[in-house]
Design brief:
The protein is built from 20 helices and 11 strands. With 508 residues, the chain is an alpha/beta fold. Helix 19 links the parallel strand 10 and strand 11.
């Protein structure tokens, strides 16, 4: 059976077993049921087609086995006859000819990442694919079909002062809003989850297993709150609750992560031996950039020579970037030491990594869901704290952008803590600089059937180990947290720091 036929066949099985998805009572009229099932089969065959592959496609062989379709939804759900938006759907079909009727659904982060660009997770979750489809829906505003692709990061800026960044940002946003064929007010999470529920019904699935990373955890929690009957299990990796304003604690959480790097380096003989004055170097570097510095570096993308005027806002903002990854955190002592010596190329290279974020969609979510609820007194109090990483680049540009970005007031119910007895598996990286373990703890009071695991040695997201993947696989198979074996987590430790361009002192 071809993958396409397997997709269509699984839909037919769903419709046959769960009549509410397809007809009122197929058993009462077998002929009508057969006709209806044939219609659904033909529709799926016509609508699903091979997924597009490009030179940058990840897991290209897996994508070639998958099938994609374009799914239309009203931009404003209260105006079904108004402007329509098209969302890309990818189904990585189960390797089993008669798969389970509850797929694994991947919810991307950001906000602004496209789920279909994360097809490589099909390889990571290969055991799950043995028995279940994997479904990836590009959230409205993301992916190659997004009408909101009009904000690009100002990679060529040479004046990195906050004032210049804000001016360039305002010009870019004004131009974007003038040409955009979309209304940003209808792209926050509360409407995006309606798209997912609509797709579930359309494809005939009874329930779904949700995996969300970073902002995807917010989508998963919102969906669980709104459509509990549609959820079988939920896996959250790096929790971003609706009740917490993302820009408020950026400096605090990034500083906590940096301090953990300092502590870990001091406790590791090789790192401590090569960087005995790491904290002092960082403090001296920060003191240097309190006055604007002119630095010469090579563009990490083009190799062109660049002369940049930068201050402490740029320095501390750039140093937050390598704290995101388990691997890049290992580079932080080396990056600081090199910058102290006047070589800023390692820092610029790591901070220039593009996460594939659609910035217009990012603003559409954050402005309506986070900045709109930001209390100025709380923000001023946070800004006054003597955190290690202090940078206006981390939150001021977003707050200023939201002053001109169209927003919509979301219902109060959206921000209430999620209450559910569905099984929820929660992971946090111990040194996560943006969604710290405390955020994972904050959602537990409302979840009566949840477990939270903090993974040592990890930063933002924890999929980079066989242990967490096997825990997720077993959990989805059984939907039983009490049977979950987490003993492998005790074997995960922070990996050695890099002591130069050749890597760490111990074999990796």
């Amino acid at each position: 059976m071809t993958p396409l036929r397997k997709i269509a066949a699984s839909v037919i099985v769903v419709c046959a077993l769960f009549s509410s998805a397809c007809s009122k009572d197929p058993a009462a009229d077998p002929a009508a049921a057969d006709e209806r099932l044939t219609e659904i089969y033909q529709k799926k065959v016509l609508e699903f087609s091979p997924c597009e592959r490009t030179s940058t496609t990840q897991a290209a062989s897996l994508v070639s086995e998958s099938r994609c379709m374009m799914y239309q939804r009203p931009e404003n759900p209260d105006d079904a006859n108004g402007r329509q938006i098209t969302l890309q759907v990818m189904v990585i079909p189960s390797l089993q000819s008669n798969p389970a009727l509850d797929p694994l659904v991947i919810l991307a982060g950001g906000p602004g990442q496209a789920a279909t660009e994360m097809a490589n997770l099909g390889l990571i979750f290969s055991k799950i694919r043995q028995t279940r489809d994997i479904v990836l829906l590009d959230q409205r505003g993301t992916g190659m079909l997004s009408p909101m692709r009009c904000i690009e990061s100002p990679m060529k800026l040479t004046d990195m002062s906050t004032e210049n960044l804000l001016q360039r940002q305002l010009e870019t946003i004004s131009a974007c809003l003038g040409e955009m064929q979309a209304d940003p007010r209808y792209h926050p999470t509360d409407i995006a989850i309606q798209d997912l529920e609509s797709l579930r019904v359309y494809l005939g699935y009874q329930q779904m297993n949700l995996w969300g990373g970073s902002y995807g955890t917010r989508v998963a929690l919102a969906f669980l709150q709104a459509y509990p009957a549609s959820v079988r299990t939920t896996i959250l990796d790096g929790v971003a609750p609706t009740a917490i304003s993302l820009p408020l604690y950026i400096e605090r959480d990034a500083s906590r992560s940096l301090e953990s790097v300092f502590d870990a380096c001091a406790a590791e003989p090789s790192c401590a031996g090569h960087y005995p004055d790491l904290r002092m170097r960082f403090d001296a570097l920060s003191e240097r950039f309190k006055k604007p510095q002119v630095i010469s570096v090579a563009d990490p993308v083009t190799g062109e020579a660049l002369t940049i005027s930068a201050d402490i806002d740029w320095l501390h903002g750039a140093l937050r970037s390598p704290l995101y990854g388990r691997v890049t955190q290992r580079l932080v002592p080396f990056i600081i030491e090199q910058a102290f010596a006047g070589n800023y190329a390692p820092l610029l290279s790591v901070s220039a990594i593009n996460g594939g974020i659609n910035e217009a969609m990012f603003l559409s979510v954050v402005c309506s869901e986070d900045v709109a609820r930001l209390n100025q007194a709380d923000f001023d109090q946070e800004r006054a704290q003597p955190y290690k990483l202090k940078s206006q680049h981390l939150n001021v540009p977003v707050i200023e952008a939201c002053k001109v970005w169209p927003t919509r007031t979301l219902p109060d119910s959206y921000f209430k803590p999620v209450v559910s007895d569905k099984p929820v598996l929660v992971f946090s990286g111990a040194s996560d600089p943006v969604t710290p373990p405390s955020w994972g703890e904050s959602i537990l009071p409302g979840l009566s059937n949840a477990q939270h695991f903090i993974v040592d040695g990890f930063a933002h997201n924890t999929l980079g180990t066989r242990c967490t993947v096997e825990m997720i696989t077993d959990f989805i198979e059984t939907a039983d947290l009490s049977a979950l074996d987490s003993s492998c987590l005790s074997n995960i430790k922070r990996r050695p720091f890099f002591i130069g361009t050749g890597g760490s002192a111990t074999h990796d």
